[in-house]
Amino acid sequence: MKNLLELENVHTYIGQYHILQGISMEVPEGAVTVILGRNGAGKTTTLETILGIKPPSKGTVRFKGEDIHKLSLHNIVKKGIGYVPEDKRLFGTLTVEENLRLAERNKQDFHRERRELIWDLFPDLKRAWKRPASTLSGGQQQMLSIARAMINDNSIMLIDEPSMGLAPKLVQEVMSAVEQMKGLTTVLMVEQNLKVAESVADRCYILDNGMIVYSGDIKELVKDEELQNNYLGVTV
Amino acid sequence: MNQQTSLESAVFSMSLPLFMSLSLNGLSLAMLYFLIAAGFSLIFGLMSVLNLAHASFFLWGAYSGLAIFTTTGNFTLAVIGATIVGVIMGLLVEYLTLRPLYGNHLFQILMTLGLLLVFEELVKLIWGTTILGFPRPEILTGSLVILGRYFPVYRLFIIIAGIVVFIAVYLILNRTKIGITVRAGVEDEGMVQALGIDIRKVFSGVFGLGAGLAALGGVIGAPFLGVYPELGFEMLVPALIVVIIGGLGSFHGSFVGAVIIGLSQSFGGYFIPEFALAINVALLAIVLLIKPTGLFGIEGGH
């Protein structure tokens, strides 16, 4: 399998704090890769470094074979990256439709098709089409945040803890959406919940204190309780 | 005590024609406040820049409009020309002076305050310090009789122009993708960028548009207010009050705020002129006590 995204010895600082301390990572095309790790391990910073929100001070980020770590955020995104941030970051005063319209970057026909797909996947969004995003429930907001990244013909989706704060039933719904994306695009997802990650992931990385401490098949990790205890805490 | 009773009797004995006349006066003033406050508010909401130099665009709109009008004798040309001068000034100010200072509030305030003074001094250098008259165009002179009182056509023109601009910009903000981008940027400009949009272009566009609206206010306000170097600074204080009452970053808030302040100025100025400004400040305090974000401000915005 070809690698769509590669990080090589990436270091990122936030202020004076050395958050990512030399991360190397490969995200194969068409698969779901999950980044696991405790709070503060640097998972969100990894995604933000890829996007150029927190550019790396050292190292390279390569996307489709091209170095992108020196580009600015909007130019990186335009290469075909969809982003579903941790706190959703919807535009609350904008309607569901406007939130999606704002995100559209491709040809109109494509978006028409994608809207249909989104409506099938999340019927709630169709019903709330003309309502301000701030009036949606937490679960619906997560769906809209995912839909906003799906509306474009993105080669990869960076999804930051989609299960956070959601009821188990909604987590399932969100994960089945991620499952659906598998056929359409590559996914790099941050997740704290191993069970949730296991249900969709092909590959996984574990981050601890800004360094990668495990990479490989997620099935292996599920069997290895010692590894889980060491790096994922007792949440599983 | 005596003064108060006479004030009360004056207010209660106010006739309908007087009421109409004060209302229309207040509304025409309100439209000028609106034109200057709209850009002011959007610029703050989007870029968190408190652009004190915004009043300079109004001032320069008035002077450049007058210059064009005296040369060509064509009022329409003066209005269009002055607006363009405002847009160009806005683009230059944003690109040359504010772009390096985004995120640095103290320097922004110093910079824009400095620009306000420089633009005023430039006006004095070019046009002198005397008050200049801006003759009303032929077609807009004269008065209409409304309920037995004369009301200048020109002020009606200002009211209509203000409402037309309000509707036009409102439609742009609500119906077009550019408008949606601006509204989204007021909420979370970082996320707009994360959707692949170059926010700097949006900043420039809004700055240019806002400056153009202020200059438009200056040129159409000039025949009514007169043209003098302190005009910009005098508009700055009510515009600030309007923006805060309406809610920073809210376009329709700036319209509603302008109407409130325009009317209070007109009625207050008639009945208790010595307290006109105090009434505005009191209104400001009341709004902030009830709703600290202003009437239409977004919770959690900048």
Question: Topology of this protein?
Answer:
The complex is a heterodimer of chains A (236) and B (302).
Chain A: E1 3-14, E2 17-28, E3 32-37, H1 43-51, E4 58-63, E5 66-67, H2 73-78, E6 81-84, H3 96-103, H4 108-121, H5 123-127, H6 138-150, E7 156-160, H7 168-181, E8 186-190, H8 194-200, E9 203-208, E10 211-217, H9 218-223, H10 225-231
Parallel strand pairs in A: 3-8, 3-9, 6-7, 7-8
Antiparallel strand pairs in A: 1-2, 1-4, 4-5, 9-10
Helix pairs in contact in A: 3-6, 6-7
Chain B: H1 2-12, H2 16-47, H3 54-72, H4 75-98, H5 105-127, E1 143-146, E2 149-152, H6 153-175, H7 177-187, H8 189-194, H9 199-225, H10 231-246, H11 251-271, H12 276-290
Antiparallel strand pairs in B: 1-2
Helix pairs in contact in B: 2-6, 2-7, 2-9, 2-10, 2-11, 3-4, 3-5, 3-9, 3-10, 4-9, 6-7, 6-9, 10-11, 10-12, 11-12
Protein traits:
heterodimer; A: 236 residues; alpha/beta; Rossmann fold; six-stranded mixed β-sheet; four-stranded antiparallel β-sheet; 10 helices; B: 302 residues; mainly alpha; two-stranded antiparallel sheet; 12 helices; 2 strands
What do you see in this structure?
- The complex is a heterodimer of chains A (236) and B (302).
- Chain A is of the alpha/beta class and 236 residues long.
- Chain A has a domain of 137 residues: 3-Layer(aba) Sandwich (Rossmann fold), CATH 3.40.50.300.
- Chain A contains ten helices and ten strands.
- In chain A, the strands form two sheets. A six-stranded mixed β-sheet of chain A has the order 6-7-8-3-9-10, sandwiched between helices.
- The model of chain A has no long low-confidence stretch (mean pLDDT 91).
- Chain B has one domain.
- Chain B is built from twelve helices and two strands; from the N terminus they run αααααββααααααα.
- A two-stranded antiparallel ribbon of chain B has the order 1-2.
- In chain B, strand 1 and strand 2 form a beta hairpin.
- In chain B, helix 2 runs antiparallel to helix 9 and helix 3 packs across helix 10.
- In chain B, 48% of the residues are buried.
- The mean pLDDT of chain B is 90.
- Chains A and B meet through helix 2 and helix 3 of A and helix 7 and helix 8 of B.
